[in-house]
Write a structure and sequence with these properties.
Two copies of one chain form a homodimer. With 427 residues, chain A is of the alpha/beta class. The first copy, chain A, is built from 13 helices and 13 strands. In chain A, the strands form three sheets. In chain A, strands 2-9-8-7-6-3-4-5 form an eight-stranded mixed sheet, sandwiched between helices. In chain A, strands 10-11-13 form a three-stranded antiparallel sheet, with helices on one face. In chain A, helix 7 crosses helix 8 and helix 12 packs across helix 13.
Chain lengths: 427, 427
């Protein structure tokens, strides 16, 4: 962050009073414009959905390459040709992939509930029979990961999220001696909301570290594996390979989907894991389902052809959304650069900008924004139980609104950030 | 069953020896034809799937009637217009329906696992915290209902399935005093495999009967609600209404799908229940999923228009499969009528013919058929843990093979039934 002007935190009371008066005027003007804008959800814009509109008329065939009629029952692990595309994108072998339905979140939920009800390949007993089950959660993180654990009675212990992934030393300290720590969440590439990318070094340590629980699982939610915003098309660390080399092949389970590639909610999801984990998953799945929607799988195969088709498609997404991410940078920078009351991520991929405001003002910023017609994700939502201990974190999701709205909304958010800081500094 | 000839069970040893020699010759001839036919699975034939081929080019729009973009996230309870179609077909209010993904089996699995992990509206505690959980299973029944319970550690107690539903007195005796009996399965219309239809009288008793468990659930799997084989288009009993009148509104949870209406595996499923159960389900679902595949839901709405569109579509199915069911009757009747060694259902809907052979010979019949190239569902599969105590039940699934194959296969099965009986009677 550049620092063209003096930080507010060192300003005199008179300067602060003056700036507060100015910010209050700006906020009143903002309110007067009667906005109704929404930056809450990491949803694709309709122009992004249009990129896949061909899907609505596909598939042209109803047989997969082996001649299987995709309209009928069967094929629990999904179409081979779709598994190959996912495998290529995730850097794994196709025989480690299960292609599923429209939701990777549901596949994660299945894995956690099945660990609870049945236990996994390395479990001494089902997790539900343990007195306590804990998960390591890097914060800020993805709200739905945390709410799922809360729903299922799993305790959450937090570690800080860094630019290169979770704080490995903190993770190691939590998992080394406590056998009730059974797993952790990780969004390895362009994390929600920080944009962090887990480096191969960090991944190596996470896959190799000793854990007291023999059935410790890293749920490797690679939701944004191919969602680049720059020419730097970062490759995700090879979680399965590293884990296998370290002697912990069953530790990671990968997830991904096309929710933010084709249609959010009508895409296809996948899981990738060791042979043993995959067999375990498919065995459980066989009691819960007869097979995935293979027609939708074939629809996606026809749209893309291969993994390079996906990569080319993602560059079209980038062309649509990179300007929105730039608009966030521009609006925040224009008003807040150098004030020392906010810092924000400059992600090179994914769906979010992570904004930290002055400690103790995040909820107030969100309230001010709401009263000016700008909906932001609720304060604390990137933390377990929705509680941000420092009340400073705000997740910005700029993809859904049109560019002009992002510009307007973020200029407004910047006003709110400054006003809330000044209120606090002058209180 | 007519009785044109004397039953084998009263035949003299000489007559039996003669018939055994004849049946053995017939079986050898059957083997010599080198068949490769499959009657194992209740799968639609490809001509049935062709009835919905228009789906492959739908939807033409990507907005529902309220203008919601179905390509994006959201709408956990499904498209209103699809819920209305299901509601009409099931005889319930649309506000009691949740329209989901491609599998009603998965929705059933969710309900059972959530009762285990969380408990329902009337549960003193989650079922997993009870020392034992038992389900009443009418037999013969649907194998996947039973395997799901076995997987989840739920014990099964059986009652006989009658023409008008489960033996109510037997059910009442099991549920009245034992609070560990938490639920039962029911396929109310054209049951798998018996073809039974639960009458309003039986349904009334099941919904009203006292149960020791306050959270007793009847999982009302109406998979074949509109799958008529005759002009008698039986209406299912009004489970939700009857339960509500009896003061047990949360007892039944209904399930249905279009798996055997449009594409098996690429259709849409639904659940219908009391407001309290529905809220409970949706609350749990909100932690496991972001929403169903609304594009596929709209695709189905466009194909059918309304519930009458579904009914008209089902008459086309009937035209294709009723002859196959007739072929089963003809083949079995031609060889076995009057022999007193077999009886079979004459279903007026659904997907199966239920064949009972001479006690102790079902496994042998299936083995003989297999050795003649005719695959039948494994012996005992319509019973918990795959164990038919009388070794007499065989489920015939005639929809998938072409009509000529059904004729050939069933003539062969009839030979096997007689041969196995004669082997036993002459042993």
């Amino acid at each position: 962050m550049t620092s063209s002007i003096a930080p507010l935190t060192t300003a005199s009371p008179e300067e602060l009073a003056e700036r507060l008066a100015a910010a209050t005027r700006d906020y009143a003007a903002l309110q007067a414009t009667g906005l109704k804008l929404d930056l809450t959800r990491g949803k694709p814009g309709s122009d992004q959905l249009d990129l896949s509109s061909e899907l609505l008329g596909l598939p042209t065939s109803y047989k997969d390459r082996n001649g299987v009629d995709v309209r009928n029952y069967g094929g629990l692990d999904g179409l081979p040709e779709l598994r190959e595309i996912f495998a290529d994108l995730l850097g794994v072998d196709a025989d480690k992939v299960v292609a599923g339905g429209n939701s990777s979140l549901s596949m994660m939920y299945q894995v956690v509930t099945w660990m609870l009800l049945k236990g996994g390949p390395d479990s001494p007993r089902p997790w539900s029979e343990e007195p306590t089950v804990k998960f390591v959660c890097a914060v800020p993180g993805y709200d739905r990961h945390f709410t799922m654990l809360a729903e299922l009675g799993i305790e959450m212990v937090t570690v800080p999220m860094r630019e290169n992934g979770p704080d490995v030393e903190a993770v190691k300290a939590l998992v080394a001696d406590d056998p009730t720590v059974k797993g952790m969440w990780l969004v390895p590439t362009y994390a929600n909301p920080t944009g962090s990318v887990v480096t191969t070094e960090v991944a190596t340590e996470l896959m190799a570290m000793p854990t007291a629980a023999p059935d410790f699982r890293i749920l490797w939610d690679n939701a944004y594996a191919v969602h680049h915003l720059t020419d730097d098309e970062t490759l995700s660390a090879d979680a399965l390979g590293l884990a296998s080399e370290a002697g912990h092949p069953n530790r990671p389970i990968m997830f991904a989907s096309t929710s933010k590639i084709t249609f959010a909610g009508a895409g296809v999801a996948c899981l990738a894991a060791s042979q043993e984990n995959r067999d375990w998953y498919l065995q459980r799945l066989g009691f819960a389902a007869i097979g995935p929607d293979k027609v939708n799988q074939l629809r996606h195969v026809e749209l893309f052809g291969d993994a390079d088709g996906v990569r080319a498609h993602m560059r079209k997404h980038r062309a649509l959304i990179a300007p929105k991410f730039q608009a966030v940078q521009d609006a925040l920078g224009a008003r807040l650069d150098g004030l020392g009351i906010a810092r924000w991520s400059k992600p090179i991929g994914g769906y979010f900008v992570d904004l930290d405001v002055l400690d103790g003002t995040a909820a107030r910023v969100i309230e001010l924004a709401k009263d000016a017609g700008i909906a932001l994700t609720p304060a604390g939502s990137a933390f377990p139980h929705g509680k941000d201990p420092d009340d400073r974190n705000i997740r910005i999701a700029p993809t859904y609104p049109p560019l002009a709205d992002v510009e307007t909304a973020m200029a407004g958010v910047a006003v709110c950030v400054e006003l809330a800081a000044l209120e606090k500094l002058t209180a």
